[in-house]
Amino acid sequence: MFDSDYLPYAVAVIIALPFLVFAKQFVNSFVRLKKQEINFLATKSNSEIKLQALERMTLFLERLKPSNLVMKFDKGLQPHEFVFLTEKNITEEFEYNASQQLYISKSSWQDILTSKNNVIQALHKTYEELNENSKLEDFKTVFLMSYLNSEDYISDTIENLRKELNKII
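Structure (tokenized):
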């Protein structure tokens, strides 16, 4: 009965079969853990990119505040030169940061765009309301006062970005 030529093979299969099952389970669990690790790293990386986008756009909004805008450029400029240079500066910085919209919610991006457009409109409106003999300091004062007397849409937008950040973290 035990004289068969196949006996060593049968014993080898019987002994090897549990090891093969355990090896397969080990490999499957190892692959599953590696997939989880890759997903975790991808999520972490995506969160970091979103965080950086929110930081950059918050910095843009801080620079967009009229109190910061009036500090820019030479005091010897005429109001129309100041308006031109300020609008150009805002537009360039906005275009530089335009790619951040990929990582920010649609509503937050719309708020940022609205804030930018409101500041540019306020610049033009203030310029149109002043008389031709007004100095740059007069322009800056009226510009600041009109912003202070209106809704603080920039701070509201920054607060919305802060809420979006809390959803990420």
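The helical segments are 7-64, 66-69, 79-96, 106-129, 136-148, 153-168. The mean pLDDT is 90.
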